[in-house]
């Protein structure tokens, strides 16, 4: 699956704020995901990100 910056994705586990939706803000060796619920930003290695992302919710425009 190919992702792009600005894509909204769903993850397996929900964030403590209750949201399961994240916006991709950076792609590379590491992925940066911004929580759509509380704007918290996490950095994940690409491999880990591929595992936790379960669905592409909305393609970036
Ligand atoms: Zn959150």
Please describe what this structure looks like.
This protein has one domain (about 10-60). The longest helix is centred in the last third of the chain and has 7 residues, at about 45-50. About 10% of the residues lie in helices and about 45% in strands. About 15% of the residues are buried. It has about 60 residues and is mainly beta. The model has no long low-confidence stretch (mean pLDDT about 95). A five-stranded antiparallel sheet has the order 4-3-2-1-5. The chain binds zinc ion. The site of zinc ion has 7 residues, from loops.
Number of domains: 1
Note the run of SSEs as H and E: EEEEHE
Q: Biggest sheet: strands, sense, closure?
A: 5 strands, antiparallel
Q: C-alpha Rg, in Å?
A: 10 Å
Number of helical regions: 1
The fraction of residues in strands falls at 35-45%
Structural class: mainly beta
Shape: globular
Distance between the termini: 17 Å
Instruction: Count the E strands.
Output: 5
Percent helix, as a range, is: 10-25%
């Amino acid at each position: 699956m190919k992702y792009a910056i600005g894509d909204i994705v769903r993850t397996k586990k929900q964030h403590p704020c209750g949201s399961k939706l994240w916006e991709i803000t950076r792609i590379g060796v590491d992925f940066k995901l911004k929580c759509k619920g509380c704007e918290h930003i996490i950095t994940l290695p690409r491999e880990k990100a591929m595992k936790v992302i379960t669905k592409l919710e909305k393609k970036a425009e």
